[in-house]
Amino acid sequence: xxxxxxxxxxxxxxxxxxxxxxxxxxxxxxxxxxxxxxxxxxxxxxxxxxxxxxxxxxxxxxxxxxxxxxxxxxxxxxxxxxxxxxxxxxxxxxxxxxxxxxxxxxxxxxxxxxxxxxxxxxxxxxxxxxxxxxxxxxxxxxxxxxxxxxxxxxxxxxxxxxxxxx
Length: 166
Known about the structure:
0% strand
């Protein structure tokens, strides 16, 4: 019975599954179930019966997939892991970042208090210039002037520190 619908049965299963191997395995399961069925005379429409058995096998397969825990295949995981970009910083990058932050903190510590406050509110707290001016009781022009001076001062100090290290 299954032999006459083999190609169509395989295409039916393949269209509902993502893997060719799974479709082949399920087609074999359908064949086995049809071979075990003894009362072939009772089947009025062989084609409908074959596809109904295939539907049942497919349904059971999906139920089993949902219930079973995730299969862990270390080889596949390793292969897929190699395809992913590694965004985590290396130990050297973390060290350099920490060193730059310490250098910046040391430079900021040498600034006048008001100038340092303006810079920290703008950069670390991401406050708009207007809000910084209102909080500190200074003009918007002064906020911008302090930010410009701080950026220029930090840049020159950090550049000179890096030159003396090299």
